[in-house]
Write a structure and sequence with these properties.
By secondary structure, this protein is α+β, with helices and mostly antiparallel strands. It is built from 3 helices and 7 strands. The chain has helices spanning 2-17, 42-58, 117-127, and strands spanning 25-29, 36-38, 65-72, 76-82, 131-136, 142-148, 152-154. Strands 1-3-4-6-5 form a 5-stranded mixed beta sheet. The chain has a two-stranded antiparallel sheet with strand order 2-7.
Length: 155
Amino acid sequence: KVFIHRNYSNFDLYKSRHDKPDATLEIKFIDEIANKYLYIQLEKLESVVNAILENAVKFGDNKPVLMFGEIIHESGLVISVRDKGIGLQDTLGETVFENFRQVESGHNRKFDGIGMGLTMSKKIVNFMNGSIWYEQNSDQGTTFHVHIPNCLRRV
């Protein structure tokens, strides 16, 4: 519950930082997760999710963001963040996780940042023996998925 509360608080900060006052966040975690203990460095997972949430706000043009969590293979956690922003093309592949990679380049960029959020997220997820990937939504935007294996235990 602390994890979810912090994400709402951080989302409000990102809305203010990127001047997106009408952006909304909906969080849906399956009920079974509440009956499990998260056996992981929570701060690391939060930094990964926060980087993805901030990008969703930054590139989302005040559109809704959905974050959902589910369990796979009894002890693995998948957290997904779906936005309806400008989207990433699937053809970009792993380049979105490269150092200093940004959607736009040059002096006339519309978006701020240095292009390290997804790079650091990938490194953290790899450290936790997990995986991170994205897919272009069929309607608009992008969905990022973070899978952390063997991190849930029964309460």
